[in-house]
Amino acid sequence: FDPIKYTSVSEAFTKSFGLLPSFDSPIRKKNQTLPLREKFNTEEERMRGIGYRLKKSFSKGTVDAEITQEGLRLTVTKPIGSKDVQFSSAGAELSGTMKGILSEIAEQLKTKTKGSQIIVAGHTDRHQVQGGKYEDNWDLSAARARAVRKYLEEQGVENIAIAAYANTKPRNADPTAAADEENRRIEIFIQRKHNKPETTTEW
Fold first, then answer.
1. Which of 71, 123, 153, 170 is most buried, most CB within 10 Å of its CB?
2. Range 179-183 average pLDDT
3. What's this model's pTM, rounded to 2 decimal places?
4. What are phi and psi of 163, to 5 degrees?
């Protein structure tokens, strides 16, 4: 494909007939795709940077960061040697350590994800809630998500929704106490604003 020749022929056609060609210009298509790709790449780099900085800010294993097709998923897990990061069984109260972690996450969200949709997801372990403050595991996981959303909003983070998964998405399916602690967790998901553009066909 010769873009110079194409442009000359197109301009001559327009001058002769006073009309634009009925087919789309491959040059125009290529130029339109480039800004979208740049936006996607910039957002991708920003999300990777958030994950990297948070993982480096805490003890190994405290925050897990995963880039997905839909965005960035941050999972607050139990770091080595810590006893009070995760939720207690059948509880939704934030520990002091958890609040410290969320404060650091909030700083990244406020400065690096402005305008993005943020979803806080709550999870429970395999044990079903029996009596007490919460009706069932769905209610409990929603309460955990609400507690995190409330704290993040108090730190100035905006555009937060919540999701509840009860015990349907365990990180560790082993029937052990250690697995239960790992599964009692919250995840913070930052949705992409720009999807990866389709590859442009060269002419």
1. 123
2. 88
3. 0.75
4. -140, 150
